[in-house]
Amino acid sequence: MNKHLEELIELSKLDKSIDDFTPLIETAQKKLARRATKRDDIIARIATLTEVSEKAKTTIASYEEQIKALNEQLISNVAKEKEIKTEKEMKALSMEAELAKEKLGHANAEIERHQAIVESKEAEIEAANVELEAAIAEFDKISLEVNAKLASIDADKGKLFEERNTKTMAIDMKILSFYEKIRIWARNTAVVPVRKQACYGCYMKLNDNTYASLIKSEDIITCPHCGRIIYLEVQTEEA
Questions:
Q1: Full DSSP string of 7-40
Q2: Residue-level pLDDT at 237
Q3: Is the pLDDT of residue 81 over 80?
Q4: CA-to-CA distance for 214 and 196, rounded, in angstroms?
Q5: What is the spatial distance between Cα 62 and Cα 137, in angstroms, rounded to a whole number?
Q6: I want to staple 53 with a disulfide (CB 3.0 to 4.6 A). Which of 30, 121, 166, 212 is the partner?
Q7: Domains of the chain
Q8: Secondary structure class of 107 (helix, strand, coil)
Q9: Is the pTM of this model over 0.85?
Q10: What CA–CA distance (Å, rounded) separates 27 from 54?
């Protein structure tokens, strides 16, 4: 087999080993991202519950101010009764007092309703905080595991990159450039074997002339169908 072809086959295998780390990295990152999403969802839920609770408290404060004003109005009306001289004035003051009492009843009912909302939301917030604490602990644990995994992957990739650099320095630049151009689109199938007279990149059968050239020639040959670099894989008797 052509020496340059042997070098490209080894380089292709090395590149595949390096790229095989990509799904491992993505899986680890997705695992951590899921925990982060779970944590962030709880934080967002707590923020929404807090907003509802604070709004209810603001409404309660508003009704309490209204009750204070209405009570002052009723006290004022009692004082005015002593100054009333006509029945018409008495009726007007009486209607004013009845209206104030209705507003008081409504305000008290609304305060009670919004206090129930506050109690409900604060109970939900308390439960969500327990969830958040557990989610943060889980995220921190997974983060440590993922970071350790990624550090191990980086170390292994580093060794392979060093080996790749050593190999590429020994390969003819024109041949290396040719390989890299194919690898841009073919990725880890830039160099593929031929089995049963078929290219194992595109799985198309080679014609007899190309196959004969592959057997006899010492040159680097590409598949006439897909353009990948091909080589004749030695088949063992067992295979």
A1: HHHHHHHHHHHHHTHHHHHHHHHHHHHHHHHHHH
A2: 47
A3: no
A4: 13
A5: 40
A6: 121
A7: 18-171 (1.10.287.1490), 174-232 (no CATH)
A8: helix
A9: no
A10: 41
